[in-house]
Amino acid sequence: MKKQGSLLEILLVSLRLGLTSFGGPIAHLGYFRDEYIQRRKWMTDKTYADLVALSQFLPGPASSQVGIGIGVMRGGLLGGLVSFIGFTMPSVIVLIIFAMIVSSFDVSDTGWLQGLKIVAVAVVAHAIMGMAKNLTPDLQRKAMALLALSVTLLWQTTISQVVVIVIAGIAGFFLFKGDTSAQNPEFKFPVSKKLGATFLALFFALLAILPIAREITTANWIAMFDSFYRSGSLVFGGGHVVLPLLEREFVPTGWLTEEQFLAGYGAAQAVPGPLFTFAAYIGAVIGGWQGGLLATAAIFLPAFLLILGALPFWNALRTNPKMKAAFMGVNAAVVGILISAFYFPIWTSSILEPIHFVLAAFLFSILVFWKLPPWVVVLTGAVAGLLFL
């Protein structure tokens, strides 16, 4: 692994990802792997898979938590913050501007957006190939990945991924306990266990205190902060799961109309970065750009507190000889989970006609065989979609 990087380097890399990472959380993990692991060698595939597995355990936006974790490992607490800012702010700015213009349009059938969906197919397929090669090298782990794929695809609930990862960890503990081939490099992690426990305590304290503060005060900003914080704290399964929570928090209460909510949802689908930035649109509709920034801070704060609280303990566990076997099983399950998500929703929502498959094959080829950078693939997919779809 390279030496610790500068905050400017982390910001610029994450900003480029924030401007080009279309396709949802699983696609984001593919973009992250291409940039951070394949190109820059900031960590190994095994370490990256461990971090992805941890993010599946925690509520909140999984891809954002992975990005924050990578930033922290690369540049300390400030590294995590600037990694988050770079990846998240482009879509936040666009959605706040859209909300303040107060116009609505339908982007669901535009060709360029369909092209970006197909880009996600190529990127995720590439990521799966690389991770499967490194993390499922034998028949036992291939079988575990297949089982994880099957269970998460046929049993689509908010807890299925967590259950699969737990079972895979237990199975790995017994199957691979005598295997010493998987070596995890030690990180000089900048957050102590004591500070990590403080972050976790703050997470639960805010979850308990904010609803009480909301009841004893009439300040709208406290009510907004509580709604967004609670939504970000109680969501497993990615950005799409948070949408019904936000709808129940803000539409029946009259803070915004159903039409405004759906218009913002359409805009959120058309921008790169995490879908949780939809909160910026809602906050801006309610309270201008200040409300947009408040909403963004509130919905992502749980992700920060949880990942910073969990990472010190995870780092100790992953280097424990007794836990390495369990993580071998977990990593194999992560591959299966990614393949499951590759089929649904990425493939099923993107490859609808033969021309879509042709474009996906072309984009995959220029990414894998011609080795063009992901941003070129994104631009090519958008232009091809605009011209041909």
Automatic annotation (TrEMBL):
It is found in: Cell membrane. One of its GO terms (cellular component) is plasma membrane. GO terms for molecular function: chromate transmembrane transporter activity. Its main location: membrane. It is a multi-pass membrane protein. It comes from the Bacteria. The chain crosses the membrane at residues 6-32, 81-105, 111-132, 144-175, 195-216, 266-286, 293-314, 326-346, 358-388. Keywords: Cell membrane, Membrane, Transmembrane, Transmembrane helix. Signal peptide: none annotated. Belongs to the chromate ion transporter (CHR) (TC 2.A.51) family. This is Chromate efflux transporter. It comes from Jeotgalibacillus salarius. The gene is chrA.
